[in-house]
Amino acid sequence: MRLLAGLTPADLRLWLGDWQFWARDDQLPPAGDWSIWLMIGGRGAGKTRAGAEWLRLLALGDGASQPPLARLALVGESFADVRDVMIEGVSGLLGVHGKADRPQWQPSNRRLTWPNGAIAQVFSAEDPESLRGPQFEAAWCDEIGKWRYARETWDMLQFGLRLGRQPRCLATTTPRPTPLLRALLADPDTVVSRARTRDNAFNLAPAFLAAMARSYGGTRLGRQELDGEMIAERADALWTRDMLEAARTRMAPPLARICVAIDPPASSGRHADACGLVVAGITEDGLVHVLGDATMARARPAEWATRAAALYRRFEADAVVVEVNQGGEMASAVLREVDAALPVVAVRATRGKYLRAEPVAALYAQGRVRHVGALPELEDEMCDFGPGGLSSGRSPDRLDALVWAITHLALGTRAKPRVRGL
Fold it and tell me: Facing residues of 323 across strands?
């Protein structure tokens, strides 16, 4: 406070406007000789401010290592988006400049002109052909995940980035699993920075953040729009994101039976598979509710057995279902060592994982399964599980535990639920 009290009004304005001081690391240009900077972030994460400040730096230079660039491009989903967000928006280009260096916006010519002569031309992703002919030293592209003609627009822009020592392009976007975004993320020459909505909490209303977390935290939409995650699914997967969103509920009704299902790893140690641990229950009328995913990575037998026993007590379960293919009777023995009173149900796989999972996926398709709250890591496995397993080649440990739980409750010999105590 003493430091602030000693500043003159002019110094205070200068300090408050110092983007290099206030910006987060993910909002500042990466170091090195990069050509493409992809900034992926949630809604309100500060992507637009970062893009506007970067273009301002290019147009004006920094007076030292960065000389001003004369030919720039602004590309958005539409001309209206470029105008309303990138230029005239609260965090847009006109807002981040002072009066002395603010560019003149010429809507009829679709260009911004700075006092030093730098020009930024405006383009729409609805018209890729308009990028034929013009040439640039740098470009800022916004919301490329929403572009109608994404690949065509991007390609035409790249042909035009041919001026200066090292043409550069910044793309700011909330992620969507589009072919263009997938290609850019897979390109080793793309420099990627990520930001979540909550990272920009200082500039957002607390009520907004609380409402978003309450309504969308952990869901597909929330992970994409708030956490800036690329939420993908395979075309040949047994489950889809829409199927799982349709199955989501806030709380479970009274349940007739509950079980804790375990898919134990064949070994322990640094490179061992995870131990799948899923809790599920079923109502009297046969509606399954998945209550939790407590899967453990690199856990020793005593550790996962202890957690399973704790889940059994916490959820007041009726059974602990454990696959015994990998460890034989060892898995059952470890559980009973932890708690001799656990009602352990040993199950053995006689078919492949995909064949075991198909009837469970059919229950989801029939609307007979609900997910209580968000189970993001489990749902990622479900939407990435196809005939050949997971795309990563790893074991689907969470999914296996889910399949054992639902099979025991709804598809096994004791599938018909009973009311406790009867």
Answer: 347
Q: How far apart are CA 29 and CA 264, in angstroms?
A: 45
Strands 257-263 and 319-323 turn out to be parallel
State the distance between the two ends of the chain, measured CA to CA, in whole angstroms: 70
pLDDT in tens, 83-139: 999 999 999 999 999 888 999 999 999 999 999 999 999 999 999 999 999 999 999
Task: Please tell me what DSSP assigns to residue 161.
Answer: B
Quick one: tokens of 131? 């990028």
- β-partners of residue 321 are 261, 345
Closest CA to 69 of 34, 120, 35: 120
What is the value of pTM for the model shown?
Answer: 0.65
Task: DSSP letter for 252, please.
Answer: -
> To which residue do tokens 């009602």 refer?
343
Domains of the chain with bracketed CATH: 2-222 (3.40.50.300), 241-411 (3.30.420.240)
- 345-380 burial string, b = 16+ CB within 10 Å, else e? bebebeeebeebbeebbebbeeebbbbbebbbebbb
Helix (H, G, I), strand (E, B) or coil at 356: helix
Alpha-carbon distance of 33 to 14, in angstroms, equals: 30
- The answer to whether 161 touches 138, Cβ cutoff 8 Å, is yes
Lookup: tokens for 339 = 């708690």
8 A C-beta contact, residue 46 and residue 24: yes
Q: What's the pLDDT tens digit per position in 144-184?
A: 999 989 999 999 999 999 999 999 999 999 988 888 998 89
